[in-house]
Amino acid sequence: MNRLRCFGPSDTLFVLSAFFIPLFFSIANAAFNLTTIPFNQGYLPLFGDGNLVRSPDGKGVRLLLDRFTGSGFISSNLYQHGFFSANIKLPSDYTAGICVAFYTSNGDVFEKSHDELDFEFLGNTEGKPWRFQTNLYGNGSTSRGREERYRLWFDPTKQFHRYSILWTAKNIIFYIDEVPIREVERKEEMGGDYPSKPMSLYATIWDASNWATSGGRYKVNYKYAPFVAEFKDLVLEGCPTDPIQQVPGAAGICVEKDAYLEAQDYAVVTLERRLAMRKFRQRFMYYSYCYDTLRYPLPPPECVIIQSERRRFKDTGRLKFGGSHRRQRSRISATLSAFDSNM
Ligand SMILES: *[C@@H]1O[C@H](CO)[C@@H](O)[C@H](O)[C@H]1NC(C)=O
Ligand SMILES: *[C@@H]1O[C@H](CO)[C@@H](O)[C@H](O)[C@H]1NC(C)=O
């Protein structure tokens, strides 16, 4: 089950908080001009087939988790670089212990030297928000976690939102709708840690009771099953590649698609988008490995240290504000401390 992704054993309580919708995110951009494909045209069931329900129009699927199994799908090809995207709606109400993951990986092909890019969503007890994490691994660099954890500025169970991963030879961008929430630019010093081999796209829902919510304190409660994650308006741009048959020099076959990807609107973090990204990160990011100087006394080479971000974190990587005094706080500071849930 470890291939299904989702983040680590540590966890913490979340503070109830009102959702608010910062206007700056809505002005950030017009929607991307994307070409969507029907499910059958790009994807296959991965596991729990009976719990993968295609929509009548063929454009999407519902992934169910019940007491017998979770479910998942995988792209029918591996891609050398790409833009992987879907409109996703997460299960609502009591979702403690549930993990929904949307990620690229080649762990099935390269067991010891795999690459991976993750969106991982963790459910919560009723009334408490979903949280999520992004992560990346390159060439089997699993001992170097590059995780960041965040809350969302909306309720992901109410409406569909677009989650996207762009991967080129130059950079990786995680998007929510049109807001870039994380960019990793390729640095020479990263070496093999920058994902470089073809990857498949995966989407899964599964029972992560052992640790998902407050370190396993809250298990999946099947009284509320089935839990349903919906995926639609799927986008799969990239250069389909067979990593086994790849021969030296064959890399040239992806030149055109690479150029296409790099020329797309979503490949550029405009000034406006960069501002939206900064604002997102200052308000909703509650952990970044780049600021965890206990783990990494020297931030890894791809880290871009932003002083206004760094000031929010202790050397442990935990947020400075909040902690044990939460209960005595006024409503205003309770809202502030909602940003404080740590690892
Ligand atoms: C959107 O993309 C399609 C296909 O790539 C293209 O033909 C069309 O002109 C684009 N529309 C806009 C508004 O850019
Ligand atoms: C990836 O890891 C393998 C060993 O697992 C090593 O032989 C290879 O040189 C690495 N590739 C890069 C680009 O670092």
Automatic annotation (TrEMBL):
Q: How is it modified after translation?
A: Contains at least one intrachain disulfide bond essential for its enzymatic activity.
Query: What GO molecular function annotation could you give as one example from this UniProt entry?
Result: xyloglucan:xyloglucosyl transferase activity
User: Cellular component GO terms, alphabetically?
Assistant: apoplast
Q: Where does the GH16 domain start and stop, copy by copy?
A: 30-231
Q: Where in the cell is it found?
A: Secreted, Cell wall; Secreted, Extracellular space, Apoplast
List GO BP terms, alphabetically.
cell wall biogenesis; cell wall organization; xyloglucan metabolic process
Give the superkingdom in one word.
Eukaryota
Record's keyword annotation contains Flavoprotein? no
Documented EC number(s): 2.4.1.207
Where is coiled-coil annotated? none
The free-text function statement in the UniProt record for this protein reads: Catalyzes xyloglucan endohydrolysis (XEH) and/or endotransglycosylation (XET). Cleaves and religates xyloglucan polymers, an essential constituent of the primary cell wall, and thereby participates in cell wall construction of growing tissues.
Know the name of this protein? Answer: Xyloglucan endotransglucosylase/hydrolase
Q: Per the UniProt entry, what species is this protein from, by scientific name?
A: Carya illinoinensis (Pecan)
